[in-house]
Amino acid sequence: MNDRRGTMALSALGLLFLFLLGQFGYSYLKISEIVSELADAGQQSKAYRHHVVLISQELDNPFWRTIGKAAEEAAKDYNMELEYVGPFRLNPMEQTKLLDKMIASRVDGILVQGVDTDEYKRLINKAIERHIPVITVDTDSPDSSRLTYVGTDNRASGHKLGEVVIESLRKEPGAAMRNRIGVIIGSAEAANQQQRLEGFKAAVGAEPYMPIAGVAVSNISRIQAAQAAESLLREHPDINVMVGLSALDAVGILQAVKVLGMQDRVRIFGFDDLEETKAAIAKGEIVATVIQKPEEMGREAVRQLHAYFGSGELAPYHFTSHEVLDRSNVGVMEP
Questions:
Q1: CATH number at residue 229
Q2: Where does the Periplasmic binding protein domain start and stop, copy by copy (predicted)?
């Protein structure tokens, strides 16, 4: 009887052992499945490519093409897919429509030039509310909810151009004579143009013999820059300094000066470093230009977006560098 009871006890223990072993095996399999799922999720997370868009001021503008190319290269480094879009010609309304479209498409991030309208600011705020990060490039929209601005300190660069004009004119014989300045800006609406003009006025306004005779708009067009410059020079024939504050203005001014036969008495200063501008500086037809760093803007804007995807926190401003290009260094600047 005792043997029988012992056998039954052993059998019960064996069954219990088998049950526990089965439970262990089942738990092991479930844990393995969970670990595998987490690993797959991690791999998918690493492989996910954020779809971001850069909305340019003007699609084929050389300055914006340079920003776009640098941004595309940086996007590859950060495993992003960058889409470059913009109006074919300067058109703030089209920029606004593109911004609205990209918000509706629920892209992962937006890099965009700021436009100083209430509707544009409303759309930036709308994107942020929908958890779509927006970074302004080249021109800020500080009254919106944008995360950060990446670009030139436009007041500082405009002031620098004013300093360059003052220094150049002081070297001229009879520097105390009254000079008269004509200014061409790219856009009356763009905040960056207004800020450059403010900085320029602050610099030359401190000089008693450098009044600004007039300001005209080129609408980011070399042809319109030439027309605006010619009109200013005809209206104010005593202008002896012409300044352009957007990339195509200086070469447009040069065209007007040549048409009017005023090359020997009108000194030209510009902004940005188009190949035509650099060639004219080398020939002495344009005195100097303040150059921005569009490559730096494109790379830094994407880097900031990548940082946001990682931490969600950005400083409000990231100013890129600017410098003066004149005949002394035009042949040694990096392309």
A1: 3.40.50.2300
A2: 53-308
